[in-house]
Every structure is written in structure tokens, then in C-alpha cells.
Amino acid sequence: MGNTVDRERQETCEQFGFIGELEGIAEDADPRTAARLRALVRKRVACLAPVRVSVTAQLLEVTTPTVRAWLDRGVLTEAEGDSSSRRVDPRSLHAVMGLVRELRAAGAKPGNLVDQLWDRLADQALLDRSDLRESLARVRGGDVVEL
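Request: output the structure for the sequence above.
Response:
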């Protein structure tokens, strides 16, 4: 069994490493190329198999109990399927990996990382709403209605 887990860990780490490389290139690319690269990243992540909790912990540099707690709190999404063990949805893992990287770069402490993650995820959910994006665009364009 250890062989299968080790192989899965190596494959998953390689896949996310490749995805990270594409994202790094997208950061330096012109907007059109960056958009195409980000679309490729989304497709690649969507094709990944669900990720074991232990592999997720390694990728996020946290403990397995932390990953389980994040699954229970909804910070990470559990993958659907018939696996006898819990697995993490790769799209959820990808999103959280980016946020964890940003928060650590900004000096986040491990003890309150989950609270900061939760806040960022909630903010992103709001920003993903089309009605809010439309309203913000109108405000930025000077189309403000005084109450």
C-alpha cells in the first residue's frame, strides 16, 4: 500500500508543480496569453484525480488533522466517489493552495491560517457574483446613485 500512496503522492506533486509553472508563466505573460494559460490550468486541474488527505497535507504544508478539520469546516471540498478514505477535490485544493501561498507570503501565522483562509474564500465568493461585479464596475465608471 505504501508504494501506491508514494506513487500517488509523487504524481500529484508533479502535476501541481506543472500547474504552478503554468501559473508563473501566466503572471509574466500579456493578458491574452495569460487568460489562455489560466484556462489550461483550470482544464488540467479538473482532470486530476481526487487527492488523499495525507498528500493534501504535504502540498499545503499542514498536518493531516488540519486537512480533515478544513474539510469539516468547508475550507476544502471533499471529493465525490466511492473511496473508503476521504479525498480532497483537486479544484478545491488548487484554490486553497494559492490562498495559503499568498497568506504565508503576507506573514500569516499557522494558528489563524484557517480563519484567514475562510475570510479570503468568503471574499472571493462575493467577488465571483456577477451582480456584485456589475455594481462595482458601475461605481468605478462613476455611475453612482445617491440615496
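The chain has a mean pLDDT of 83.
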